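User: Fold both of these, please.

Assistant: Here is the first one.
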Amino acid sequence: MVSCLSLLILRYKERGKGFRCRQQRVPPPSELVPHISSLDSTHDPSALVQLPVELWLEVIRHTTDAHALAQLMRVNSTFHAATEPALYRNVRLETDTVIVNFSRSLFRNPHRSRLIYALTVSTLILIPHSLATRLEPLPHWGVKGCEAVLSVDYPSLRIFTSNLSGSVVNPFLQRHTDIEEVHLVGNPSLFSTTWASQGITSHLLKFHSLRSLTCPHRFLHGALNLPPTLTHLHVLPLSSNLLFLPSHSAAFGSRLVSLRVRLSMYSLWGPQALRQVTLNDVVATFPSLKYLQVDVNYTSDPHDLRTTTLSGLHWTAKCEPDRYTEAAQRLTVAWIFSYPRDQGVNMVKAARWHQSLKEVALEVLLEWEHLVERVIFRHTIIPYVSVALNESRTGLVCWQERGMTDEYWNTV
């Protein structure tokens, strides 16, 4: 019995020695430098690629993956100093938990607010009957968390995106007059309450360098002093089906380069729907316009695009000789039909839509060739397609716009 006990004690001591030795082992400097695994699936340790710190710092400057940057920031103080500005340059807060955590991070590290160039703040609290709505009474949750984030000043901020109401966003925008892009992208069903007239500040917002704006129609009318620098505009569902901006915006209209409008589902019911608008009116209002995109609600069967049902423009109307308008350069026109995610794909209907859009595009290009250079369209599963007249002006040349995204209007 004694010999067995002695043997167990001896083994325990040997294990303790080994454990202490492993704890005291100091890794060589090469192990402190991150490495990139080889593409070889065998994961042979000899195939690991080690990079000098200087090269890693260059890699960090071109890395956009937030998770990778967060991991690199924990390596050492050198990597932390190089990674933190890249990690906090573009901040996207799109869940309530992330908003709360970010607010606490700013409280612990106030200097990070000076690193932020682009900020997105959106909350699910605005979606009726969601879990976030149920949790709204909790402290620092939902709009309360957003208010904490927006109470901070961001000296380097140039791009701001949010789905919050005017009562929350307006005070923030008033303090950040150097913003170059503002995108207010709230749920269309909430616009009537989100941007109600009584919720809009009596002091018009003024920006020194605003280049791009996404906003509801009533915000454009009542909350903003349109700056002369604005060249890209995305107007969310219109109260009428006309493309005209406020009458006092003549100077602004002459500088607009890209215009995107979303057609309201109910816009055709208003009295202004009786007025026929053609491409002549568009070019006369926006003489520098290069790109015009119209977002249209989904329908299972093709609209009669030869009427004013598409964005209030009579696309195939005849060009009247006495109203002939010359454009600085010919337009690119885009018709984008939204796709309902709760419905399946119908190949037959998609093919019928594709053919209908090509026919209307041909009519538009033939009649308005002096104003329109090409037409882009997309519907449901059909990718972005560009069409232009062939050399003989008897048909279309078609090609796919593989690199086109939903934000193309903002890059023109």
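And the second sequence with its predicted structure:
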Amino acid sequence: MQPPLQWPRCGRNDFKFCRDDTAQENEIDMTVTRYPGNFRIGVLDGFADGVGDPLPCRLDPKFQILVLLAGRQVFHLDHHRIELDAETGPHAVMMHLTRSCTLRYAGSWGDPFRKIALACDCDWINQLMGEDGTRRGLLESPLGYVTWRPDTEIARLAVQIVAPPPTETTAQANLFRMSRGLEILRRCLTDHLPCGAPPTADPVAETIRLYLNRHLGHDLSLPRMESDLGLNRRSIQRHFTKSFGCTLRDYVRTERMARAHRALAEEGASVHQAAHLAGYGTVANFSTAFRRIYGVPPKDMRNRSI
């Protein structure tokens, strides 16, 4: 059996999620690797019980994604309370901080306590997103964040970052982690800052949209949405249609089909798997709808994958 891979330790100011940038959590530290462009990936895997450092500290501007795979964590950004609880599945937060703010941990618990963190400079993510105003979403806020339950693919990528396959060199392991981290970044930006979503000043409509994105793989019903969102169906439909110019049904159908397209073009999914992702009961109906939208049958799209 090969010994576990050891990452090169970075300095105490390399990650800056908590006071000392190695994100201390009681008996364990976050191991951080810095990549070109100041893109950073951190891994924390161990035991946590309580508050490692209760004192507030300053958090510098940055863009960050945290994916909690096991355990529970509560912290405050200025007056915003953020709680991640992975008891029922991975829980994540994406943050865009254009100004300094105060971070205070309320506690971390778990045995294991397992999470990954991706971080980069605000300028880097802004250049990546370009000038397209329809994709900026939370990037417009000086302290913007969104929490959600990541899908199985993001969870799988996060697990691979925590436990990469055996490699011959540390450089290979770091490159493997970087590729997974960038793919998580791409998926998160696609899910939460989609190209086709126009900007909206209605936070209720945005909450509804993010809810739909999180539940694309599940059966969506208005009674369930009413219960989960605390709104009646008329309010849900009115807020959403006014802000995004389409019905709930049309939005879900479009997003599911886009997800199926990505699975075929980028992940080598089978046509049957793509049909399931798009919510179709038969491959024939899915193929007809896919060709009408993209101009080619799904089997041809799959043949283009690398």
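The chain has ten helices and eight strands.
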